[in-house]
């Protein structure tokens, strides 16, 4: 038969009230029982598989690296899911003001949806600008991520790694198993 005993400990009661602010005003003594009640915590941190975001998005041997020169749009990613991109782009004004010199876009096979653009404000040919950007992009079925360098002398170097599949399941770096 289970026995219930009152616990009279100011430090335990203070800790309980500090951790459960919704119980402020509850004045009964804490009680203990000799009955074992299993508590199952199903959170990722309880199972030990929680990985810091910077570790989960680390580059690995599955990282795609694409260099995009002036010309036609170039595929960066053709698989579904969540993708982390790091872009290093160099642009040249090319003689036209406010012209997009480098662009990253989602493409559904028909329409381009610009996600990121490097714009030049100068019209002076040979006026170079270098920028870096980090993006997280979701690619749905039938879509791809493309890059385009639209002005002579412009170039983009793009690194991409899948960080989650289409359902949001995190993709850790290849070969890494959290403990």
Description:
The chain is mainly beta and 179 residues long. It has 2 domains: 4-38, no CATH class; 53-164, Jelly Rolls (Sandwich), CATH 2.60.120.1010. The chain has 3 helices and 10 strands; from the N terminus they run βαβααββββββββ. The strands form 3 sheets. A 4-stranded antiparallel beta sheet has the order 3-10-5-8, with no helix packed on it. A 4-stranded antiparallel beta sheet has the order 4-9-6-7, with no helix packed on it. Strands 1-2 form a two-stranded antiparallel ribbon. The longest helix is centred in the first third of the chain and has 10 residues, at 10-19. The mean pLDDT is 82.
Which keywords apply here?
four-stranded antiparallel β-sheet; 3 helices; mainly beta; Jelly Rolls
- Structure class: mainly beta
| Rg from alpha-carbon coordinates | 27 Å
- What is the subunit organization of this protein? single chain
At the fold tier of CATH, the topology name of the largest domain is Jelly Rolls
**What's the shape?**
elongated
CATH class descriptor name of the largest domain = Mainly Beta
Q: Biggest β-sheet, characterized?
A: 4 strands, antiparallel
Order of strands in the sheet with most strands:
3-10-5-8
The proportion of residues forming helix, as a percent range, comes to: 10-25%
| Average pLDDT figure | 82
What's the SSE pattern? EHEHHEEEEEEEE
Structurally, the number of domains stands at 2
Name of the CATH architecture of the largest domain: Sandwich
What portion of residues belong to β-strands? 35-45%
Number of strands: 10
The low-pLDDT segments are: none
Alpha-carbon distance between the two ends: 40 Å
Discrete helix count? 3
């Amino acid at each position: 038969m289970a026995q219930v005993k009152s616990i009279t400990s100011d430090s335990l009661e203070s800790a309980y009230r500090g951790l459960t602010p919704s119980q402020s005003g509850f004045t009964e003594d804490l009680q203990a029982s000799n009955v074992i009640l299993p508590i199952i915590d199903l959170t990722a941190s309880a199972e030990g598989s929680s990985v810091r975001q910077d570790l989960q998005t680390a580059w690995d041997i599955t990282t795609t690296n694409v260099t995009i020169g002036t010309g036609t749009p170039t595929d960066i990613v053709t698989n579904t899911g969540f993708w982390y991109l790091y872009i290093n782009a160099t642009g040249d004004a090319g003689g036209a003001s406010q012209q997009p010199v480098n662009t990253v876009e989602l493409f559904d096979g028909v329409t381009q949806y610009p996600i990121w653009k490097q714009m030049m404000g100068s019209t002076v040919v040979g006026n170079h600008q270098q920028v870096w950007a980090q993006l997280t992009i979701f690619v749905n079925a039938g879509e791809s991520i493309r890059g385009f360098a639209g002005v002579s002398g412009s170039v983009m170097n793009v690194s991409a790694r899948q960080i989650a599949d289409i359902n949001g399941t995190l993709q850790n770096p290849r070969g890494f198993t959290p403990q």
